Amino acid sequence: MAEGRIESIHIATAAGAPMLSRVEVSVTAGAGIDGDRYAAHAGKFSDKPKSGRQITFIEAEAIEALAAELGITLQAGETRRNVVTRGVPLNHLVGREFEAGSVRFRGTELCEPCQYLTELTGKPGILPGLTHRGGLRAEVLQGGLLSLGDTVTF
């Protein structure tokens, strides 16, 4: 098994609401992060139910590459993803189980950037800059606590 770590955690209470940074969150199996828009069915895409959209991840390395390659800087919360990881090749986790802290996940699909992200950030080059590295959607198989600095094993 390989491992990385969690660098930041974010939630939003409703679609388009600012992302709030958290040190620790409670995660519920089959639902997502307690207090997050998608666990509460209040997210932008909640009206299009699809399994495996309970939590999102993005690599810190992808955010850094966006800045280095295109000069587009984003704060971790601006990505609209719940968890920022380092040292975790998220694209390789589609269809695979992995753990972070005491929580177990299954990667379901890539979280490709969309026009809504461009609208919220006001940064038009973000779509091509994050294509195929916009993160991972996952379902929560076993709930628990997720904290900054937790190890991600895959």
Question: What does this protein look like?
Answer:
- By secondary structure, this protein is of the alpha+beta class.
- The chain has a single domain (about 10-145), classed as Beta Barrel (M1 Pyruvate Kinase, Domain 3), CATH 2.40.33.20.
- It is about 15% helix and about 35% strand.
- The protein contains 3 helices and 11 strands, in the order βββββαβββααβββ.
- A 7-stranded mixed barrel has the order 1-6-5-9-8-7-11. Strands 4-3-10 form a 3-stranded antiparallel beta sheet, with no helix packed on it.
- It starts with a strand and ends with a strand.
For the sheet with most strands, the description reads:
7 strands, mixed, barrel
- Overall mean pLDDT score? 93
In angstroms, what separates the terminal alpha carbons? 6 Å
Q: Briefly note the structural class of the backbone.
A: alpha+beta
CATH architecture group name: Beta Barrel
Shape: globular
Question: Mind telling me the CATH superfamily name?
Answer: PK beta-barrel domain-like
Low-confidence stretches: none
Give the SSE order as H and E letters.
EEEEEHEEEHHEEE
**Strand arrangement across the biggest beta sheet:** 1-6-5-9-8-7-11
CATH class: Mainly Beta
**How many independent structural domains?**
1
Helical content band: 10-25%
Q: Which band does the percent of strand residues land in?
A: 35-45%
CATH third-level topology: M1 Pyruvate Kinase, Domain 3
